[in-house]
């Protein structure tokens, strides 16, 4: 009881801190890098889709230097919200969430997080990483969104696609820099410092960290560079900083796709209906790369039918993006081999109706080009592809999954090399949970094992049959996360034993 009283006093102190910073004049001179960041309470963002949780949230902006290496430079504002816990007696330490991407919209993730029970016993804190939709500045690139809508009708690795993509990124970069944005300051180390400043500005003594995908890279960087006040760290769909190097997409694709094919072979009904599925995939990638299909398909979320180009590279990237559900992959490959590309064509058409402005492509490229690509050659990407999928056409393997023409884009984006400072393994004794899905084709579970080696008090769980961002898809994973947040050194992982992938879709012959 005495401990609870101390926690309540700390929480009250945090509220007093919020009240104190609110008294600072909103229009004061930009804060130099040496001065503390400040949190300015304000209205919650008006999100594109309703987020009911914001009705009870405390929102505002964190003001921080754009570039901490330049004292006296301009400040930027990062949108943040505190979502209250469901429990009437929540734990003292909140959970701060680090979203994927980089450049992924954070506030849209709130309903997913609350549906997963993340705020059941803890207040949930979200903050848009620098450059996101509700920040100032906003590093959206509508030029790139428009290109992506057009890309569905182009060859995945075609010269025309490359030219149009580079033009879109050049236009975005020129526009952002003309507004005075220092693109070199939008990186993971600065992101991590922002979260450290947020904890201090809110007056929170200790908190828990939950990050997924790029958010796991950010969380590990944060743990390495600002370990103060961190009670526990949960990592979902893990990409550790030392592994976030451009060719990493190939071993992840190999692991995730291979797990789907192996799971089909392990289910008698799937194996009997779709024998030798691996050969079917290899044949279809090669066939489509030699003779692309150009079907018309209606985007899954609605809209007019569009013509798409389905070649080998497009087929691979549809698989990696999980726009065809893993349970449907064997049926989709079988249908494709029999002359029916509808499932894959509809998945390719999904990008024809982009959510313009939702992704901060400026942050995406500033991180990718400063941290993931330096020192990487085109031959290194190709070699990794050949190792992952021997025999596939080089035109497919020359582009890293989900990141086509990335080296060319980075020559256009032109930000400073930060790889040496960023590609560092995190060594820590802070209790850490690592969760991976066996069907994850974006961040293979092998990366979580690599990260766990230097985390001396870590727990690693692998959830069968689940793709990217595990907790929202798996009640078991959500239970493990809740148990970890309650007892970081002794989480209950018992529900994992005996889990198996769901049955695959079986279609008539």
UniProtKB/TrEMBL annotation:
Domain of life of the organism encoding this protein: Bacteria
Query: Does the keyword Membrane belong to this entry?
Result: no
Pfam families documented for this protein? Abhydrolase_1, Abhydrolase_4
Which keywords does UniProt give here? Answer: Hydrolase, Signal
> Peptidase S33 tripeptidyl aminopeptidase-like C-terminal domain: from which residue to which, for each copy?
408-494
* MF (Gene Ontology): hydrolase activity
Q: Give start and end of each AB hydrolase-1 domain.
A: 94-240
- Leader sequence segment: 1-22
- The name of this protein is Alpha/beta fold hydrolase
Q: Which organism is it from?
A: Streptomyces racemochromogenes
């Amino acid at each position: 009881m005495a401990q609870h009283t101390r926690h309540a006093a700390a929480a009250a102190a945090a509220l007093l801190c919020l009240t104190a910073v609110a008294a600072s004049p909103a229009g004061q001179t930009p804060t130099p890098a040496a001065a503390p960041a400040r949190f300015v309470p304000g209205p919650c963002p008006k999100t594109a889709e309703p987020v009911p949780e914001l009705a009870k949230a405390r929102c505002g902006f964190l003001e921080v230097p754009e570039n901490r290496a330049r004292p006296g430079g301009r400040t930027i504002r990062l949108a943040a919200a505190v979502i209250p816990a469901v429990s009437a007696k929540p734990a003292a330490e909140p959970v701060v969430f680090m979203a994927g991407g980089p450049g992924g919209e954070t506030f849209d993730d709130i309903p997913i997080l609350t549906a997963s029970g993340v705020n059941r016993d803890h207040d949930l804190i979200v903050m848009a990483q620098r450059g996101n939709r509700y920040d100032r500045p906003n590093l959206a690139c509508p030029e790139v969104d428009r290109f992506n809508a057009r890309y569905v009708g182009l060859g995945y690795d075609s010269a025309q696609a490359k030219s149009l993509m580079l033009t879109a990124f050049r236009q975005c970069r020129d526009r952002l820099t003309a507004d005075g944005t220092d693109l070199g300051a939008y990186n993971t180390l600065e992101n991590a410092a922002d979260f450290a400043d947020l904890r201090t500005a809110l007056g929170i003594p200790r908190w828990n960290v939950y990050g997924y995908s790029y958010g796991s890279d950010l969380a590990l960087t944060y743990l390495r560079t600002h370990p103060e006040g961190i009670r526990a760290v949960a990592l979902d769909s893990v990409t550790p900083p030392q592994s976030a190097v451009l060719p990493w997409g190939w071993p992840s694709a190999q692991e995730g796709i291979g797990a789907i094919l192996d799971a089909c072979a392990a289910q008698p009904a799937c194996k009997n209906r779709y024998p030798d599925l691996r050969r079917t995939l290899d044949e279809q990638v090669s066939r489509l790369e030699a003779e692309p299909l150009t079907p018309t398909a209606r985007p899954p979320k609605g809209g007019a039918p569009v013509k798409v180009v389905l070649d080998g590279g497009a087929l691979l990237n549809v698989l990696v993006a999980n726009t065809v559900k893993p349970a449907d992959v064997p049926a989709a490959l079988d249908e494709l081999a029999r002359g029916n590309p509808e499932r894959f064509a509809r998945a390719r058409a999904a990008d024809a109706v982009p959510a313009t402005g939702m992704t901060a492509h400026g942050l995406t490229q500033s991180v990718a080009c400063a941290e993931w690509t330096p020192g990487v050659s085109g031959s290194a990407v190709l070699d990794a592809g050949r190792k992952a999928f021997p025999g596939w056409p080089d035109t497919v393997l020359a582009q890293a999954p989900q990141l086509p023409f990335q080296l060319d884009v980075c020559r256009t984006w032109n930000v400073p090399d930060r790889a040496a400072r960023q590609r560092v393994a995190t060594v820590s004794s802070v209790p850490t949970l690592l969760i991976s899905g066996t069907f994850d084709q974006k961040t293979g579970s092998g990366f979580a094992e690599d990260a766990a080696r230097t985390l001396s008090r870590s727990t690693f769980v692998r959830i069968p049959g689940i793709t990217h961002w595990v907790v929202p898809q798996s009640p078991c994973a959500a239970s493990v996360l809740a148990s970890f947040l309650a007892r970081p050194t002794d989480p209950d992982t018992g529900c994992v034993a005996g889990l198996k992938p769901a049955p695959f879709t079986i279609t008539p012959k």
